[in-house]
Specification:
seven-stranded mixed β-sheet, alpha/beta
């Protein structure tokens, strides 16, 4: 699985970062987690055909995680006529809202789904996606992504402000190949306290807080000082990793 960080901001406009969006590639298949960044533009600039997309998953529906996906959905309906994929949102309200916004959306090829925020959300020949509820907002979740070849990626999504008390327990209880963790809503040491006990091979810190220079400097210092027992990377827009 190849992981590309399309956007790593926490939501405030930045000259150097788009809002949150992550692209996963398994073979020729593309999966998106969140769409705060202008996904259609960024995929086009990377030469990634829209038709490769199989599914889109939202951790929650705050605008910095979903506002950039509108054009992508519309283009797949009226221009890229061979696109066919599923979109998963943890709230029925937003499915209805997206339908209202895209009157011309081809609902047979661009299929919107609501799910209860917990349990298995999606399965195909490449990956299985399981949602773990969080308390960032009324309907929000983390994702556990298991690949057919035995790899596991955990994406925390946004967590409860201040204490990250809803950090997914499965990340502490079960091994994973990588954790993608946010760093916007609590002190760095707070989230490090959760991550230290996780049996994971590496951690990627994203969704960086508004004071980028200070936040990134602190994350890079922690990275250099091996503050966590596993490798930790403070990611930037465009960074690419593999597990």
């Amino acid at each position: 699985m190849k992981i590309t960080f399309l956007g790593t901001s926490h939501g405030v406009p930045s000259a150097i970062r788009y809002c949150q969006s992550i692209m996963l590639e398994v073979g020729e298949a593309v999966y998106l987690i969140d769409g705060g960044a202008p996904v259609g533009d960024l995929l086009t600039r990377r030469g990634v055909a829209f038709e490769r997309t199989k599914a889109v998953f939202f951790t929650h529906m705050h605008s910095d995680h979903c506002a950039g996906i509108h054009e992508f959905l519309a283009l797949a309906s009226w221009y890229y006529k061979t696109c066919s994929y599923d979109v998963y949102m943890p709230d029925e309200y937003y499915v209805n809202a997206f339908h209202a916004l895209h009157v011309e959306m081809d609902r047979e090829r661009v299929r919107l789904h609501a799910f209860p925020g917990e349990g298995e959300v999606y399965r195909d020949e490449n990956i299985t996606v399981t949602a773990v509820p969080t308390r960032h907002m009324e309907h929000s979740c983390a994702y556990v992504i298991d690949t057919a070849d035995g790899k596991r990626l955990i994406v925390t999504g946004d967590l409860h402000g201040g204490d990250a008390a809803d950090f997914p327990q499965i990340a502490k209880d079960e091994p994973s190949d990588a954790i993608i963790c946010e760093q916007a809503h609590f002190p760095m040491e707070t989230i490090f306290g959760h991550l230290r006990v996780c049996p994971t091979k590496q951690v990627w810190m994203t969704h960086v807080a508004y004071n980028y220079d200070v936040s990134i400097a602190k994350l890079r210092e922690a990275e250099a000082n091996h503050t966590l027992p596993m490798p930790m990377h403070a990611v930037d827009d465009g960074d690419v990793y593999e597990i």
